[in-house]
């Protein structure tokens, strides 16, 4: 404990915990969803839970929830999954659906959940990379420059040339203060960076619960899948919600541990949650043009 992390927020007004139960017997190379639960907490209190067992219902419920939450831009929001596997499965479900269907709900989910793939190639902020105007600094208007500088917490005073230079330096620097939170945080991965788990090996949710909160009962993934596969609907719904609530209790518990160790937890948890902005990335419909644009972006990043 003591290493700063950029992947866990100091605080958020609304926490959304997504739990996915996958079919381990599936031979498909893509995630096979057996059940899901989306639990919302606001100011530390349970608000609602949405439960289902299909990809379509997951997307519909998630889109409705994202739309409702994003209507108030003053509220900060962070989405959590426990494991990296759940985060990966959530991304894959959205990507696979986008290959065969197109709907407003899917657009909302993609905008709020997925990161721009090209952002993986560079330290440039995705929101800036997505803006075609920044390919040519001379075409950027002052209001747009001020918006992006303000969103990065940078000074907006000065002439147009100064603002252009300031933003360009920010985009091309490796300043860690510009790193933003993942759209969906894997709690397991974040905890490995924040806390030291005694003993070797892979840490499950129940291990982290014991470490952060003390002795407590946590349903395992195996137990949950058994309940789902046996058709015990009441059983798996109750326990899946209990699992999501445990994830949130750990989030709160980690911050309390840090508060006891540090006068200012901002030294460890560098970032704060931000308002949810489910902006959808518009893709070129022609595959050949899309490849050409991709190659152009990549070459521009290496210039």
What does the model show?
- The protein has 303 residues and is of the alpha/beta class.
- It folds into two domains: 14-120 and 181-267, Ribonuclease H-like superfamily/Ribonuclease H (Nucleotidyltransferase, domain 5, 2-Layer Sandwich); 124-178.
- 47% of the residues lie in helices and 12% in strands.
- The protein is built from eleven helices and five strands.
- The protein has helices at 55-70, 84-100, 104-113, 126-129, 142-151, 160-172, 187-194, 205-213, 221-229, 233-261, 287-302, and strands spanning 14-22, 33-42, 45-52, 77-81, 184-186.
- It has a five-stranded mixed sheet, with helices on both faces.
- A hairpin with a 2-residue loop joins strand 2 (33-42) and strand 3.
- The longest helix is centred in the last third of the chain and has 29 residues, at 233-261.
Class of the largest domain, according to the CATH hierarchy? Answer: Alpha Beta
Q: How would you name the CATH homologous superfamily of the largest domain? A: Ribonuclease H-like superfamily/Ribonuclease H
Strand content of the residues, in percent? 5-15%
Average pLDDT score: 79
Compute the number of strand runs: 5
Give a short synopsis of this structure.
Helix content is 47%, strand content 12%. With 303 residues, the protein is of the alpha/beta class.
Break the fold down into its secondary structure elements and pairings.
Elements: E1 14-22, E2 33-42, E3 45-52, H1 55-70, E4 77-81, H2 84-100, H3 104-113, H4 126-129, H5 142-151, H6 160-172, E5 184-186, H7 187-194, H8 205-213, H9 221-229, H10 233-261, H11 287-302
Parallel strand pairs: 1-4, 4-5
Antiparallel strand pairs: 1-2, 2-3
């Amino acid at each position: 404990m003591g290493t700063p992390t950029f992947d866990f927020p100091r605080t958020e007004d609304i926490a959304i915990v997504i739990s996915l139960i996958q079919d381990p017997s599936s031979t498909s190379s893509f995630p096979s969803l057996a059940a899901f639960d989306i639990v919302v907490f606001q100011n530390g209190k349970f608000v609602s839970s949405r439960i289902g067992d299909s990809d379509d219902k997951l997307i519909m419920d998630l889109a409705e929830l994202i739309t409702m939450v994003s209507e108030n831009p003053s509220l900060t929001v962070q989405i959590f999954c426990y494991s990296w596997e759940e985060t990966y499965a959530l991304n894959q479900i959205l990507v696979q659906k986008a290959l065969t269907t197109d709907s407003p709900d899917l657009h909302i989910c993609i905008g709020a959940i997925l990161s721009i793939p090209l952002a993986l190639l560079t330290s440039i902020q995705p929101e800036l990379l997505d803006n075609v105007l920044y390919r040519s600094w001379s075409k950027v208007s002052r209001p747009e420059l001020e918006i992006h500088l303000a969103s990065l917490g940078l000074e907006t005073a000065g002439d147009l040339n100064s603002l252009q230079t300031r933003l360009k330096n920010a985009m091309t620097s490796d300043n860690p203060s510009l790193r933003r939170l993942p759209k969906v945080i894997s709690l397991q991965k974040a905890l490995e960076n924040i806390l030291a788990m005694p003993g070797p090996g892979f840490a499950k949710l129940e291990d982290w619960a014991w470490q952060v909160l003390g002795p407590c009962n946590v349903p395992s993934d195996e137990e949950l899948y058994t309940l789902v596969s046996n058709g015990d609907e009441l059983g798996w719904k109750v326990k899946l919600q209990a699992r999501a609530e445990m994830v949130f209790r750990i989030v709160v518990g980690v911050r309390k541990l840090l508060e006891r160790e540090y006068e200012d937890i901002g030294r460890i948890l560098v970032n704060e949650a931000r308002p949810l902005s489910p902006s959808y990335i518009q893709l070129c419909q022609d595959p050949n043009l899309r490849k050409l644009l991709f190659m152009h972006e990549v070459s521009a990043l290496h210039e």
